[in-house]
Amino acid sequence: MKEKRKVRGELRIYLQWPILLSALVVAMNLVVGMLSAIAGLVMFGFTAVYVAIALWLYFYRKRRLLAGLVEFSSDYSWVQKHLLSEMNLPYALADEKGRILWKNQKFQETIADLKGTKKNLTVLFPDITREILSSGQKGCIHVTYEDRKFRVDLCPVDMNMEPDEEQELELDESQEKMVAVYLFDETRMLQYEQEINDQKMVSGLIYLDNYDEALESVEEVRRSLLTALIDRKISKYITSLYGVVKKIEKDKYFFAIKQKYVETLRENRFSILEEVKTVNIGNEMAVTLSIGLGMNGETYMQNYEFSRTAIDMALGRGGDQAVIKDGTHIQYYGGKSQQTEKATRVKARVKAHALRELMETKDRLLIMGHKMGDIDSLGAAIGIYRIAMAMNKKANIVFNDITSSVRPMIERFTGSSEYPEDMFIKTKDALELADPNTMLVVVDVNRPSIADAPELLQAVKTIVVLDHHRQSSEIITNAVLSYVEPYASSTCEMVAEVLQYIADGIKIKSAEADAMYAGIVIDTNNFTNQAGVRTFEAAAYLRRNGADVTRVRKMFRDNMADYKARARTISNAEIFMDCFAISECPAEGIESPTIIGAQAANELLNIIGMKATFVLTPFNGIIYVSARSIDEVNVQVVMEKLGGGGHRTIAGAQLKDMTADQAREKLKDVLRAMMEKGDIS
């Protein structure tokens, strides 16, 4: 049933006021008659005339007044309807199911075919759903109709009006909601915006990753030819995009292109990365390059700064890849080749001297690794601790979670009288020690979110980063000194090199040498993964300083529960797409299940035909993913799709708010997508 509602207004009160005033006049007449009969009679005559006029006005003139109002309302309604019909803006009314109830002429002209099912908004514009229409909220949706683009503004019209103190209208309460629909044609405006964007300048930098090494691998008389062929490849590639390229150094190029051609680069996935590898005039080592693009900055200078940031990230991730920095958004392409180990130690020596200068200006060092620190993080921290002790500086290692993988090594220091009791401290104690004369050294991590104590990054102003992981878009931005070398096998290898250059005569104790040697052994999987010449040189240096191979091996033997868990993980592995091994590591009764998962991932690589292995470990409400490969697949790129990172052959990720089965399916979806795009083969 339809409910009648009455809403009072000023009009009725205005019409009733003579009647109300008549009652007042009659009362006054009675009072005057009580005081004087003659005066009362005289006033009665005037009162009678007044009441008669008031009644005449109310009962006779009221109808004429209301008739005038109705006529005006009708004229006004007609004008309003005419204006809506003739309005030069497409306008329509629809119900909450999307059915078009009324439309003006402009709407009819814009959407010519309004027959059958097409009289429904949800059919005309699939982006507009019933849920949106029935939500009762104003909305703005961008849609496409045929070859035009529209902005659709939706404005709910509530027919259920509540009583108001000032007006009373008699309306039928509708059971359905209505939505006013406005169409704004933005086709031409978007075309103009696209043309403006297409004409924007994009700045780029190209660095040859292994220029010196490649030249050394060919005869001296042919080196100029190799350089000329590389120059020609790069110049031809950029000029095909109607851009300009300028060689700024022997192994560095600057180029500029229009933004419209960036999509071409994306589509061919920066084919120059592979084309330059085909340049071969007898060089034993294929030339690789890195590309950094900066775009959508407020100025040309900002685009150039974006390109510098992008090239730094490409080099920090190991080279042989392109990085696009589009404002705050970063995209990665390439990264299929194994990074080249630098033969020179010049960079290590320069960074060591810079570190020494910074340490000399501070009174205390705080050393921090990543959450659930492993032996590489611990060994590197102990190496930096030794440097601080040699320079007579106070130092503390921030280590919150002591797992079974590092406990045997930590007990060698905590149970020794040679080291102070506060060698290892918690985050709370570290924050109390932090002051302007404190320096924070972050080892084996460059991502603030997974640092052992992220609060320290804000509490300490002087920060130094030493890491061997490829950089991601999330990095520690306020570091005064950053030494990131993705070619290095471990952070312990880097610290061992720094120890040799930072000062003369630093003596390493056997326990410290064992810790750093263990870090190298674990991260290289007994020198089988990413172990280069400098890796063995660092190991030799540590051996000369007292590192004992047998002692380290005994220290990191597994207990039976861990061994069985790793065996179950391997036996339950699923072979996906004939080349990926995926398994789940049990966490019940295991102190450090993530370590067991990583070990299982390493062992699964021994299966013939496996290009990469992935082990999922549910632990403390988080799914830890350990990814491993030998040389065919860049697992770092795979893990970045899941929000993680790492090395080309060793990487990981942490997945929250999902089950192990959901994480497994998400991983499979990423692998399928990357296989289809050709990112992995």
Provide structural commentary.
- It is a single chain.
- This protein is α/β, with parallel strands linked by helices and 681 residues long.
- It folds into five domains: 4-86; 91-192, Beta-Lactamase (2-Layer Sandwich), CATH 3.30.450; 201-334, 2-Layer Sandwich (Alpha-Beta Plaits), CATH 3.30.70; 346-555, Alpha-Beta Complex (inorganic pyrophosphatase (n-terminal core)); 560-677, Diaminopimelate Epimerase, Chain A, domain 1 (Roll).
- 44% of the residues lie in helices and 20% in strands.
- The strands form five sheets. Strands 9-10-8-11-12-13 form a six-stranded mixed sheet.
- Strand 20 and strand 21 (580-584) form a beta hairpin.
- The longest helix is centred in the first third of the chain and has 50 residues, at 37-86.
Write the layout of secondary structure elements.
Layout: E1 4-5, H1 10-35, H2 37-86, E2 91-95, E3 100-103, H3 105-110, H4 121-124, H5 130-134, E4 139-145, E5 148-157, E6 171-172, E7 178-185, H6 187-198, E8 201-208, H7 211-216, H8 223-239, E9 244-249, E10 252-258, H9 262-267, H10 272-275, E11 289-295, H11 300-316, E12 321-326, E13 329-334, H12 346-360, E14 364-368, H13 375-390, E15 394-398, H14 407-414, E16 424-425, H15 427-433, E17 438-443, H16 455-459, E18 462-467, E19 481-484, H17 491-502, H18 510-523, H19 533-544, H20 549-555, H21 560-571, E20 574-576, E21 580-584, H22 593-604, E22 612-619, E23 622-629, H23 635-641, E24 645-646, E25 650-656, H24 660-677
Parallel strand pairs: 11-12, 14-15, 14-17, 15-16, 17-18, 18-19, 21-22
Antiparallel strand pairs: 1-6, 2-3, 2-7, 4-5, 5-7, 8-10, 8-11, 9-10, 12-13, 20-21, 22-23, 23-25, 24-25
Helix pairs in contact: 1-2, 12-17, 13-17, 13-18, 17-18, 17-19, 18-19, 18-20, 21-22
